[in-house]
User: Fold these one by one.
Assistant:
Number 1:
Amino acid sequence: MNKSELIEKMADAADISKSAAARALDTFTDEVAIALKNGDTVSLIGFGTFSVKERAARTGRNPQTGAAIEIKASKNPSFKAGKALKDAVQ
């Protein structure tokens, strides 16, 4: 399912226009991104939790030359599925 299909499903289920559903989805994704950027987590009980995981700096290898390279530390968005979502998938 892509974004436009999700918007269509949301509009049908909530009995709202597609433009209203698109604004709601865009607002949701924007607010999750802002919260993660500010170091917060977003928990939707039963669905899951969005958070930021930090990866430490490490040494890797260039696959072509075999030379050691330094990989910088980074922050990556993460999602952990909740119990209800896990049960729905099984």
Number 2:
Amino acid sequence: MKAKTKVAALISGRGSNMEALVRAAQDPACPFEIALVLANKADAGGLATAEAAGIEALCVPSKPFGKDREAHERAVDAALRERGVEVIALAGYMRILTPFLVDAWEGRMLNIHPSLLPKYPGLDTHARAIAAGDTEAGCTVHLVTAGVDEGPILGQARVAIEAGDDDHALAARVLKEEHRLYPAVLAEFVRGL
């Protein structure tokens, strides 16, 4: 049987999508393992969650690097390579990446975004979908490329926008779909490597 693909989950906060990936990886049939959870903020709640699950939790703080985002990414990249990471899953990693990291992990870095891309890249996706009068919203797993939220789409899940929805209610329903979609798409992706 092929060894499980070593995945690093990159987070900036509580890491609920990382938790969904960790849960999925506990199934013996899952083709990936979460080998590392890496955060750019020491107070990211997901670090404690990873430690509690027996996963290495590492902070490579971005603040000391100031505006030199590439220098920070070089430190992140070194940590990933030292641990034999094969695929990166961005899971609430709130940093716009430089060409250095995007190019270094081309074709091996996934992200989940809370909209039906190509609609609503960037922030405030739920409020924008409601304001536009859309009847559905959702989430997208895509490969990371140089353009923000522009990479090839690997999978999507749709959620109806209900009468009276505000961005918080819609976000909560979309998040449930994110937790279902991301592990499924990541598993399918690593099986194809």
Number 3:
Amino acid sequence: MSTYDSFIFSFTDRNNLGSAKVGYSYGDACSICFNGDKGPTFGRGRDLNIFKGIWYSDKSVSYPKLDIPAKFTADDYEVFEVIKK
């Protein structure tokens, strides 16, 4: 799905909210996707995706580069949909 409103973010220091980096989608056709076998995917260039419990961020095509590690695990994640009224 194409959108300019989608964003991903990263903290360089989890104890410091001021260390957040935010990157908004460039609006391409695969800004946000969902694969029933893999879960959420952000960006056609695999800007951020999960496979078998491991997160990958190996290319930066649909979102600006946020210095997210190329491969990492997470205890939990959340994906929100905000509906404008």
